[in-house]
Amino acid sequence: MSVADRRSCIEMVEQAKASGARRQASCAVLEVSLRTLERWEKAPEQGDQRRGPETQCAHALSAQEKQAIVEVSNSSAYRDLSPWQMVARLADAGQYLGSESSFYRVLKQNDLLSHRQNSKPRVHSRPKDLLARNPNEVWSWDITYLNSPIRGAYYYLYLVEDIFSRMIVGWRIEEVESADHAGRLIDRICQEQGIAKGQLTLHSDNGGPMTGATMVATLERLGVIPSLSRPAVSDDNPYSESLFKTLKYRPSYPDSAFSSIDQARAWVSRFVQWYNTEHLHSAIRFVTPSSRHLGLDKAILTKRAAVYKQAQRKHPRRWSGPTRNWTPITEVCLNPKKHKSETHGDLTSYTGSERSALTPGPKASAISEADKEIAKTCGVSPKNGFHSCPITNASDAGGGLPMAGNQLSDDLRQSPHPSSRLRFEGTGVY
C-alpha cells in the first residue's frame, strides 16, 4: 500500500472515531488490523519491515500449469471427479499435472472447489419444531456412557425425559447399546404413563438404537410419532444433552468409574429420585419436575407470587418495577424456528410465554418515573423505554461507554430493569 493510501486510511479512521465509531471496527471495514494502523500512524513513510523471502518459490506452478489443471478439471471426463480421483486417472494415462493439494489449491483460487458430482449433495433439513403444552406430548431421549471398571468398556444409560415438565419418565442401564433394549424401555414407559396412540412424539438422535428395526416396530405398534435430529448435530436434542450434563456434574458422581453395573443402577436411581422430586429446575420457574408433571406447579407459583406482592406492599420503595415473574410456563418448544428481535437479539432459547414478555409491545415506549430519575442523573432524555446517550469518546471507552460516566454506566448495565439499559446512538451497541 502506498504512502498516500496509508494516510488516507488514517484520516478515514480518525473521521469515524470523531463520529463515534471504534477504531477497531473501522479497521475491520478497511481490512486493516489495528496494530498495522498504529504502525502507520508512527511512520507512514516507512515501508514493510517484515523479514522473509520476497521472491516466489522456485518450484511453484506456472500460470500455464495452473491453467492446464483448470482445463482438465472442467473437461467432460474429469469434471465429476474429486482431485484424488483425477490425479490417479491422470497417472494411469501417463500424465502428471500436480499433486492432490495443488489441485485443491488451484481449484480454490478459481472458485471451482465445490460439489463436483452429478448426484445432488445430501442435505439434512432442520427437524420440525415440536410444541408441548401438556405432559406426555413430547419426550426426548438419548444414551450416554458411564465408566465401568474395565478400560474401554462402558455401561449405557438409556434416559427418557418429558420436555414439558423436565421429568425423567424412564431409564435403564445395560452393558450394550441395542434397539431391543430401547424398544422395551419405551414400551414399559408408555404403559406406565397411559400413552394413547397418536398422543406422543418421541425425539432422539440418529443412533443405531434409535433407528433400529425393533425400535421402529415398537413405536409403530404403540402409535408413537418418531422425530430424529440431524446427523452429528447435538443441538437438535438439547434437553437430553442438558440432562446428561446435570447428571455427570453431580457432586456424588464417581470420579473414576462405577465398580459394577449394580452400583451404576443404584446411583442413577438415587439421581432420578432427587432430580424429579427435589431439584428446583430453573427452566420451569424453580419447581420440581414431578410437581409440574402432576400439575401442582400452578398452586406453588401462585403462592410465591402472593408472597412477593405482600412484600411489595410492605416496602413499596424497594420495588421500582413489577415483582418477579412467577407465571407458569405454558408451552415448551423443541427446535423452535429462529426469531430475531432488534432489541433482544435471538429469542429462540425462550419459551413462547417468555418470548412474548421480552418482546417490546406497542406500548413499550411508556416512560416510568424510575426511567426519568435515571435519565436526570445521566443528563440525557429517555426515549422509547431506553436511555439514549451520545458517544463522547467511543474508541477509548471500549464498546461505547462514555468516559465521564463509567461508574454510572456500570450501574445502569447491572440494573434488573430492561428500561434501564443504555442504547448508544450511532453504534448499534445495546
What is the strand and helix layout of this fold?
Blueprint: H1 3-18, H2 23-30, H3 34-42, H4 63-74, H5 83-92, H6 100-109, E1 130-132, E2 138-147, E3 154-162, E4 168-174, H7 179-193, E5 201-204, H8 208-211, H9 213-222, E6 225-228, H10 238-248, H11 261-277, H12 289-293, H13 297-314, E7 332-334, E8 340-341, E9 345-346, H14 352-358, H15 369-378, E10 382-383, E11 386-389, H16 394-397, H17 406-413, E12 422-424
Parallel strand pairs: 2-5, 5-6, 11-12
Antiparallel strand pairs: 1-7, 2-3, 3-4, 8-9, 10-11
Short description:
The protein is of the alpha/beta class and 430 residues long. The chain is 40% helix and 12% strand.
Attribute tags:
430 residues; alpha/beta; Nucleotidyltransferase, domain 5; 3-stranded mixed sheet; 12% strand; disordered C terminus
